[in-house]
Design brief:
By secondary structure, this protein is α/β, with parallel strands linked by helices. The chain has three domains: 3-113, Gyrase A, domain 2 (2-Layer Sandwich), CATH 3.30.1360.120; 125-207 and 364-420, Four Helix Bundle (Hemerythrin (Met), subunit A), CATH 1.20.120; 212-356, P-loop containing nucleotide triphosphate hydrolases (Rossmann fold), CATH 3.40.50.300. It has 14 helices and twelve strands. The strands form two sheets. The protein has a six-stranded mixed β-sheet with strand order 3-4-5-2-1-6. A six-stranded mixed β-sheet has the order 8-9-7-10-11-12, sandwiched between helices. It is flat, with a radius of gyration of 29 Å. It binds guanosine-5'-diphosphate (GDP) and magnesium ion (MG).
Length: 427
């Protein structure tokens, strides 16, 4: 196993740069630079020298012997002066030591996962925590990072193990027992499987964490020239989209992230849904607009005709400052030019958000976790109808595999790369 190092604090220059090392060679490498190391978990001030004896910096050093460290391996923290050249010189001195190399993004956390210091749901929470921009995002992420999802899944797993034990006992002693007693126990197993499935379904029915994490997707749609791009700019508070009186100006979809009243939104402007167009690029834009509508959490419809079917739509009377157009059937009048109705629009959106976002103080799952939990619940529902004990045991095993995949005890390799690609180097 290589020993890895990286700056774990922000990009230099800064007052201090925290450079971390993790791996079997971490202590030897730090000793090469510092001469001696302080006691574990105690800070010590040391002069750092390179191999030629040149003074690099004077730094605080902390050592954390594995396995009781963040990564589970021997770890060292060097608190350097945060100048670019200081950091570069120390990195070069470390890179020159055999067995040491720079860390990949998220590699410290990846090692922590492999060493059982955290589970996959906690690593996902940590990834979200690093990206969190709103208070709600931070609260949701810190709960997952602190084991909220892990504990829930462990609770489910415990109940599953009890079920498995009951089924096994029946399989072992089924011949000896009289028939009535066996039937009772089987009915108990069925009831317990059904109860667990329904508790899981209760959690998977909640909105996914991604809506909170990535922002609610608000798609502005309607015919060309309805004022979609102008409204998006007014809502975003900047000129994100080009506006013109020429129909078909917006061809690509334009996304503008906005945080408003602590809620993260992703405003998406689309090409006008023209009935027909001779412009092949506009035609592609229209296809993209239709695709955006399918992924929308909320549709703001600016058309005069009735909106396309979507469970959460606000039908806007846009360009309301222009006289002579009817308001009938619309939810709200807005004008991006005068600002009429914009505050009201945000109020309506905030009210929708309360229903679309996972509730702030309840357990919520991301889509990956939720899909696996649903798979487990389906297996349990099948188990609740199964009278063949061997087949019942197989359903329980498949629910167990799904739980293990949530916490990363099984089937992880494929998703690790995607997860850790989101992390910064040094985490
Ligand atoms: N008077 C008025 N004109 C608007 C308003 N919003 C947009 N427009 C004008 O309507 C035209 C089309 O606007 P645009 O935002 O490009 O429409 P889109 O094709 O739906 O994106 C432009 O000339 C805008 O200046 C509004 O609220 N009031
Ligand atoms: Mg436009």
């Amino acid at each position: 196993m290589d020993t890895i190092f990286a700056v774990s604090s922000g990009a230099p220059p800064a007052a201090i740069a925290v450079l971390r090392l993790s791996g079997p060679g971490a202590f030897d490498a730090a000793e090469l630079l510092a001469g001696t190391l302080p006691e574990p978990r105690r800070a010590g001030l040391r002069a750092l020298h390179d191999a030629a004896g040149e003074l690099l910096d004077r730094a605080l050093i902390l050592t954390f012997p594995g396995p009781r460290s963040a990564s589970g391996e021997d770890m060292v923290e060097l608190h350097l002066h945060g100048g670019r050249a200081v950091v570069r010189a120390v990195e070069e001195a470390l890179g020159a030591i055999a067995g040491l190399r720079s860390a990949e993004p998220g590699e410290f956390t990846r090692r922590a996962l492999l060493n059982g210091r955290l589970d996959l749901s906690e690593a996902e929470g940590l990834g979200d925590l690093l990206m969190a921009e709103t208070e709600a995002q931070r609260r949701m992420a810190v709960r997952a990072a602190e084991g909220g999802v892990r504990r829930a899944v462990e609770g489910w797993t415990q109940r599953l193990l009890q079920l498995a034990a009951q089924v096994e006992a029946q399989l072992d002693h089924g011949d000896e027992e009289d028939v009535t007693e066996g039937a009772d126990t089987l009915a108990e197993v069925h009831a317990a499987a059904r109860a667990l499935a329904s508790d899981i379904a209760h959690v998977t029915a909640r909105p996914p964490v991604e809506r909170l994490r990535d922002g609610l997707r608000v798609v502005l749609a309607g015919p060309p020239n309805a004022g979609k791009s102008t409204l998006l700019n007014a809502m975003a508070g900047r000129e994100a989209a080009i506006v013109s009186a020429i129909a078909g100006t917006t061809r690509d979809r334009i996304e503008a992230p906005v945080v408003r009243d602590g809620i993260a939104w992703l405003l998406i402007d689309t090409a006008g849904l023209a009935e027909q167009t001779s412009d092949p690029i506009e035609a592609i834009g229209i296809d993209r607009a239709r695709a955006a509508l399918e992924e929308a959490d909320v549709v703001l419809w600016l058309g005069d005709d009735a909106p396309p079917p979507h469970p959460t739509t606000l039908w806007l009377h846009a360009r309301a400052d222009l006289a002579g157009r009817a308001m009938s059937g619309r939810d709200l009048a807005v004008s991006a030019v005068t600002g009429i109705g914009l505050d009201r629009l945000w109020e309506r959106l905030a009210a929708l958000a309360a229903k679309l976002l996972p509730p702030p103080d309840q357990l919520a799952l991301n889509r990956r976790q939720s899909d696996l939990a649903k798979r487990a619940a389906e297996a349990l529902e099948r188990a609740a109808l199964q009278h063949d004990l061997l087949l019942l045991a197989e359903e329980i095993r498949s629910a167990r595999r799904a739980f293990d995949a949530i916490t990363g005890r099984a089937d992880v390799e494929a998703m690790l790369d995607t997860l850790f690609a989101r992390f910064c180097i040094g985490k």
